[in-house]
Amino acid sequence: MRTWLKRLILLLMVGIVITMLWDQRHKIALLSNNNLRIQGDWYRIEGEFKGVDRYRFSERIISLNNDEWGSYELRKNTEIEIMVRGQLDTYHLEFPDDDNMVWSVRSKGELVPRVRWQR
Fold first, then answer.
1. How far apart are CA 110 and CA 106, in angstroms?
2. What angle do CA 112, 65, 43 make, to 5 degrees?
3. How many domains does the chain have?
4. Cross-strand pairs, 64
5. CATH number of the domain residue 101 falls in
6. What range defines the domain where residue 55 resides?
7. What is the pLDDT of residue 100?
8. Per-residue pLDDT reduced to its tens digit, 19-39
């Protein structure tokens, strides 16, 4: 009887863990998806024009014209930390479509775009 009770408790605990993970599946998938989406070559938008300098995002390193420029780390589904020349900045990360990326900051309760990127 005790063995049966232990097994029942173990199965209930496993069921609870599976349920919790299942509820978080969209957040986990989105984080993985944004990590894949950011990889590759991007050009910073200056004014309304695409810049000439190529930034490559790869394995948490940002290269500018093949020289290491900084690093990045995804913190949440839509939050990215950027380290450039010893300065750490945190941005809200958004992909309006596959060829555009926007980094925004929160100001007075609103998201204000700071850096725009295009493939």
1. 5
2. 35
3. 1
4. 55, 67
5. 2.40.128
6. 2-118
7. 93
8. 877 776 555 555 457 778 889
